[in-house]
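@channel anyone free to eyeball this complex?
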Amino acid sequence: MTGYEDITIRLDDAARYAREIPQFDTDNMLSLRDAYEIQRASIARRLERGERRVGLKMGFTSRAKMVQMGLSDVIWGRLTDAMQLEEGANVERSRFVHPRVEPELAFLLKKPLAGNVTGAEALAAVEAIAPALEVIDSRYRDFKFTLPEVIADNASSSGFVVGGWHSASTDFSNLGLVMSIDGRAVQIGSTAALLGDPLRSLVAAARVSAAAGEPLQAGWIVLAGGATPAEWIHPGQHIAMRMQGLGSVGFQLV
Ligand code: OOG
Ligand code: MG
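replying in thread with the prediction:
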């Protein structure tokens, strides 16, 4: 693919320096294939700077998120070590353009997982599960984008925090969750919002990553997608999420 170097660099710089950029494909001319190629190339620039790939995020796996963002195709993005925020830490607002947060379930893999796998095969590759918060931060002005644009922008992914890991032997298909800001519940939901069962999100992750030539690896984290609409966050706020049986995860925006 040629001709997208410019937007690749613009997106990488926007993420690196937390600067917003205008939309570049409002006419929806970009193919999804080229959008993923721009994402790959922009994340490759981070890897060249020393970041390490640690997993994959799924997006628009819940109806709540599709409705909030007005898009209806499942998308995915790449996670690097620099995006992982420490549980309970103070996170600088200046890292972001206009951050939002959403409750997710995280999978930790103990085996590679590639291609068309069954739910049972996917489950057998899971080392542990944990409650997680994803900080999404579209690099586009006003958090507005088309489907190819958000894909090119690494599916808005900017940061993620993972709580304590738990055995995946308990049924996690319908765990209640409460996301709160400064102790006030702002979103209530269930892991069942994720394609009916978050395991389906992992099955989809195995398929899309293998199709991209980057199959899921042992040790990788897979974020299954936001189970509720995302919330804007502001400096001084403490953001937390408690998931039934799995404890809680949180951080402070400063
Ligand atoms: C796109 C990212 C979607 C999710 O969990 O559904 C996503 C966005 O909402 O900006 O991360
Ligand atoms: Mg998400």
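from a first look: The pocket of magnesium ion (ligand 2) is lined by residues 57, 59, 102, 104, 134, 136, 225-226 (CB under 6 Å).
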